[in-house]
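Form 7-S
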Amino acid sequence: MTETAHIAALPEFGLLRLRSLVRLRWLAVIGQSLATLTVQFVLGYKLPLSACLALIAVSAWLNVFLTLRRPGSQRISAQAAGLLLGYDVLQLAGLLYLTGGLENPFTLLFLVPVTVSATSLPLVWTAALGLLALACASFLAFVHMPLPWPDNASFGLPPTYLIGTWAAIVCATIFSAIYARRIAEEARQMSAALQATELVLAQEQRLSALDGLAAAAAHELGTPLATIALVAKELKHALPAKSRHAEDIDLLVSQAARCREILTRLAMPEQLSDDMYQQVGLEAMLEDMVAPLRGPDIEIVVTAAPADDGAVPAMPVFRRNPAISYGLGNLLENAADFATTRVEVAAGWTAATVKLVVSDDGPGFDETIFDRLGDPYVTTRPGYGQRAKQAEKGHEGMGLGLFIAKTLLERSGAQVILSNRKFPLKGASVTIQWPRGAVDVSKSP
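Output:
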């Protein structure tokens, strides 16, 4: 998985565009203005109108200043974004102070800056903004101007109700921040992991393109190489038998023949483009994948047999598919890495399905991360660059291999099931099952 390492780093928090914050603040300015004017002139409630409009105007002038000073597409630092969101919290607190404090139902708007921070800024800024919002809410519970009410009548909520409102704001702020941050984190991880997957597919496409270029080069070089071989043979016949150049001519002829053999092998992809060469039996495909992994330390056993369902259908024939090859190859490599002495690959098929089970006798999947297996960046291995001195006999990983393998196999139509082997056996087991019609090309014309 080292080929994906350089793109797997997650995008950092704190890369908000200035335009996004400016637009959100314009929305707040419009909403606050409409609410203030509606309460004053439509409902007839008496507000400290000048002070309210002055606070709203400060936000409007701040937006104008930021728009003129910096381009809206610029990404601002976490510190700048945190300070701007902190201003929004304080500006809202000022308006609520003038209009009833915690008795004002618009106190729930404290959630907005904290939620924006949770999706975009580092955790420390989200925590700071959350504490600032809760401190303002606590202050407004005790210190504020009266809530506007018709006919200058006084309005007051019971202390118990105010405590409940304060508790609701605290709970909503904490829950919204945690939930929004978790969703943003998963979206970022999925985006980076899908980029890694696309890189793997692009690599396969580049390899296929190189195969085509090699075949084209072999075809183009064939004629001049044949001419060289022909001229060398004619020179050999023209020279005396005991000429001092005879050995050189023999060497030239032999090297020309060797080049012809190499070019013939390079030209094979062109021949393999025929459907006949693009098809491979299930057992042969597994043996090709397993062969490079076999060694003195790990025994890899491949068994292939139809299921005991009465009928005996023929072995399925697969089309050579880079996605299936990479996905299965990755699972086999993982099994060989974690196995103690043995890896078993069992292939079975019926008239309707094709099933593979890859199991090993290693420690098995970690129960603490079992529910998240197959998600990106889930691994028990040390990450790249960590504990390098201890990694000689251990395993390194980024938690992308299983995700990419599972994604590629599922794109080919497979269902992938991860589990641990049943007691008394130990180790991990991965079951891959396709509808036979999705992969078997043996009956295609």
